[in-house]
């Protein structure tokens, strides 16, 4: 059987012609005999299968990445993600601030609250109050909120004036119900008729005269004006530093004195007079202004007015034994030593008797009168009541007899107003210092109080409806308990957050409460804390961004010495 299969297979094999080269002849075909060997025969005329080729070995070189390079890669990715996330959040917040939503219209059924002023107290109240429960009207002679702690930085150009203000309409447009704002000055308050009369005092105004509106509640937060103690020439021959226009005027007069000192033909005594800057008042405002002036002279005037910078003098006059009486003795001594190093003349126990156009008459500690020439004098004294406040006190009669300001109770209710007038801030006479920190906390408290009054009114209406509809006893009892809880009003409690002041040369002082005591610090590190604290207290992201940019501009390019 196997022989037969072999014969069949041999018949199928075909000879393969293979050319063979001979040495002395042509190439002739050569026929191999038919054999059973398949080495030179192809089955079915197909070529032999190729021999498998083993692949060449692949050598992979693994490069080890160092730990430092890995750290840098991770750090770069995290930094990029942080920048993108922060930028997105900033853009979203800015977009949200610029696009306020729809507001509810005024509701005649709601009670009307008239707010006089838009300072620290009034603005804090507006931020806190829920306008969905009231119709709110704001009246103020200026249409912006001013961050007064940075006001001493404006005259020297450390901060731009527009960076520390926030339009009042920005605040009112972000409330639930529409808040009306009128730029005008309140002229009179009638507590019996519950009306407020005000008028437009701007340079450009229409034909309309004074206007009178009614109120259910009045928030009196007009603050105070600068106290001159009746000193002759204080109002006529000095600059104040209480409002934004005061700071802008002070900046213009400062550069005016410097440029006048450069003018040819001036005597040495006249140049010394023009370059003598006097600050009256040793509180935080006066101390910070003196420190800012020193920085302006050392960091900028020496570069652009080298012939005058060494002749500029700064003097601080204070009637008390020392400056900054609200700070600890250690910080007072540190401030005085810093002023001495910065060549700022500090005259304590010195009383101002008269301010003339070119000189100030003072009484020194020994009782002698001395006349000091000056080119610019800044009055940073205390506060006194506005005329409208005095008029309101006269209308309240025996309920208002305090000569320092309006008398209020623990809930900021004006004495003798039957609970219809609330007042706080510098216009009131309380046991607290007249500072922005106190006014802000008082305003926020009154805002929460109005929210509590609205909640009480809603619960009373709900309880009356339940009784009228003869609801179940447990429902009436539940609402009664809520009403009892809401009807309890907590008195105002002031929480002191500390005191800060800038004293020049990138140094600041801080007196901060800690546990049952205080922490006192001063120096460059405190200066950084001072800046961060002031940034955090600014009203909006816009203000914080602008102030930071101002500081960066001053650090890189210096302060501007041009006149407005």
TrEMBL record:
Question: Coiled-coil ranges per the record?
Answer: 449-476
Q: Where are the transmembrane segments?
A: 74-95
**GO terms of molecular function:** NADH dehydrogenase (quinone) (non-electrogenic) activity
One Pfam short name: Pyr_redox_2
Would you tell me the Gene Ontology cellular component terms? mitochondrion
Q: Does the keyword Cell inner membrane apply?
A: no
Name the UniProt key words of this record, in alphabetical order. Answer: Coiled coil, FAD, Flavoprotein, Membrane, NAD, Oxidoreductase, Transit peptide, Transmembrane, Transmembrane helix
Limits of the FAD/NAD(P)-binding domain = 112-443
Q: Where is the External alternative NADH-ubiquinone oxidoreductase-like C-terminal domain?
A: 496-560
Q: What is its EC number?
A: 1.6.5.9
- Taxonomically, which superkingdom? Eukaryota
Reactions mediated catalytically: a ubiquinone + NADH + H(+) = a ubiquinol + NAD(+); a quinone + NADH + H(+) = a quinol + NAD(+)
- The top EC class, named as a word, is oxidoreductase
Recorded family membership: Belongs to the NADH dehydrogenase family.
What is this protein's record name? NADH:ubiquinone reductase (non-electrogenic)
Native organism: Serendipita indica (strain DSM 11827)
């Amino acid at each position: 059987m196997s022989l037969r299969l072999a014969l069949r297979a041999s018949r199928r094999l075909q000879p393969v012609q293979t050319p063979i080269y001979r040495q002395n002849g042509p190439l002739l075909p050569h026929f191999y005999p038919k054999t059973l060997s398949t080495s030179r025969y192809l089955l079915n005329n197909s070529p032999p299968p190729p021999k498998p080729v083993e692949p060449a070995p692949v050598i992979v070189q693994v490069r080890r990445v160092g730990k430092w390079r890995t750290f840098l890669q991770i750090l770069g990715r995290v930094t990029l993600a942080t920048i993108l996330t922060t930028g997105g959040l900033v853009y979203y917040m800015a977009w949200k601030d610029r696009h306020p939503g729809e507001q509810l219209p005024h509701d005649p059924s709601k009670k009307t609250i008239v707010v006089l002023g838009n300072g620290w107290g009034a603005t804090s109240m507006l931020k806190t109050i829920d306008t969905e429960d009231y119709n709110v009207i704001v009246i103020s002679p200026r249409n912006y909120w001013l961050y007064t702690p940075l006001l001493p930085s404006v005259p020297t150009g450390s901060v731009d004036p527009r960076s520390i203000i926030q339009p009042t309409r920005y605040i009112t447009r972000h409330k639930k119900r529409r808040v009306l704002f009128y730029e005008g000055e309140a002229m009179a308050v009638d507590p019996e008729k519950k009306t407020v009369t005000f008028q437009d005092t701007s340079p450009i105004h229409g034909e309309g005269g004074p206007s009178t509106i009614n109120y259910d509640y009045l928030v009196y937060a007009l603050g105070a004006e600068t106290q001159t103690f009746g000193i002759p020439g204080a109002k006529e021959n000095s600059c104040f530093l209480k409002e934004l226009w005061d700071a802008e005027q002070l900046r213009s007069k400062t550069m005016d004195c410097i440029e006048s000192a450069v003018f040819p033909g001036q005597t040495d005594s006249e140049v010394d007079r023009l370059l003598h800057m006097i600050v009256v008042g040793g509180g935080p405002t006066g101390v910070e202004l003196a420190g800012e002036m020193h920085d302006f002279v050392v960091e900028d005037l020496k570069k652009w007015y080298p012939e005058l910078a060494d002749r500029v003098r700064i003097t601080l006059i204070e009637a008390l034994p020392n400056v900054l009486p609200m700070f600890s003795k250690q910080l007072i001594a540190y401030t005085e030593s810093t002023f001495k190093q910065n060549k700022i003349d500090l005259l304590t126990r010195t009383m101002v008797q008269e301010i003339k156009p070119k000189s100030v008459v003072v009484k020194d500690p020994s009782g002698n009168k001395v006349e000091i020439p000056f080119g610019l004098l800044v009055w940073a004294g205390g506060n006194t009541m506005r005329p409208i406040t005095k008029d309101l006190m006269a209308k309240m009669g025996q309920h208002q007899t305090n000569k320092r300001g309006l008398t209020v109770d623990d809930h900021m209710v004006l004495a003798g107003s039957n609970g219809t007038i609330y007042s706080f801030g510098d216009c009131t006479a309380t046991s607290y210092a007249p500072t922005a920190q106190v006014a802000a906390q008082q305003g926020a408290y009154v805002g929460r109080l109005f929210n509590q009054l609205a909640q009480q009114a809603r619960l009373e209406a709900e309880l009356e409806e339940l009784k009228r509809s003869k609801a179940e006893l447990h429902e009436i009892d539940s609402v009664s308990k809520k009403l009892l809880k809401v009807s309890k009003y907590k008195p105002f409690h002031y929480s002191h957050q500390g005191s800060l002041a800038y004293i020049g040369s990138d140094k600041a002082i801080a007196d901060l409460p800690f546990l049952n005591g205080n922490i006192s610090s001063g120096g460059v590190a405190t200066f950084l804390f001072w800046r961060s604290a002031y940034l955090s207290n600014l009203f909006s992201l816009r203000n914080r961004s602008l102030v930071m940019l101002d500081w960066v501009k001053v650090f890189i390019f210096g302060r501007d010495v041009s006149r407005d």
